[in-house]
């Protein structure tokens, strides 16, 4: 015979010694209950509190004072009973299905889909745990279950703010990325940022395959065309800096991911998006993507940015930027050929260029000499920009001198370059 403090519901024996049952079913007059007014006096508030206590769940005084009292609701008890029955069913399925563990687990999961929204001690949901370990098959099955039984689990985020799409991109799971996009998670690429301030586009630039980026961009393009996503969200995602001050554009340039740069450029053109490829870091040296690529000798990335006309080089405007960059020979050569300050020299006839070199060797770049140049060649009003470059090269760091020297050399002014170098 059961103890008087026990009751039986199906196969579950629940002891009520230290359990205070609460009934959250609304009272019959709940619709007529007066809502508390923040402007009522203290006495009225106290009276309202007493009223709420009377109509709300009651707890026995001796249990209310007990330190080991466990307060549960009837809903909790029902959930406990349901989980017990699910596990019990799994035991019998295991014996009936001849130890087919995969099918047993599948049936068990079908009965408890809400667990997909829970987290372990590391802050991962079951889906995120599978993705973080690159268990793609398990992740796929769990995603299917979530789509059918618990769609909210698809947007669950880890303790560090990563979502399923971020983990799939970081792990290189191309098929899982495509599945998540098909399940409607594509827009999260522009909406979710983790604790490091990074979104999916940052993660693509830092290590995923070109295929994954193409899938993400194709999804964003569809969302833009269907007006389910605002263009400003996409441009913000491309130009937002993480905790290191870098945008996805910085990482693509630094990692020399020219194919990704091309994909983003084409994506922007197709969707009429305009954003700044010359955006600076928000912290650190405040480099642009071009300067960051030049620093690590990512010449192909530099060449793409310059040849597409996405950025330009102007030592006058960005001298503080280039002072922070130590360039390799190949990077200097490339940047030199695209420096806007020396574009006028490109149009100089060979004989005039020779006169310019001779005059510089004899007199130096003085105001008197520049005045003579303007007198002889009035059609060259921008020629003093050469003076600016030479002045920069003489008064700033060695890297800037090398830039100016290589600019002049690459344009055919070898003697002028050697003069500048002090040879």
TrEMBL record:
SMART domains: ANK (SM00248). It comes from the Eukaryota. Residues 24-40 have a biased composition (Basic and acidic residues). Residues 24-57 are annotated as: Disordered. InterPro entries: Ankyrin_rpt, Ankyrin_rpt-contain_sf. This is Uncharacterized protein. It comes from Macrostomum lignano.
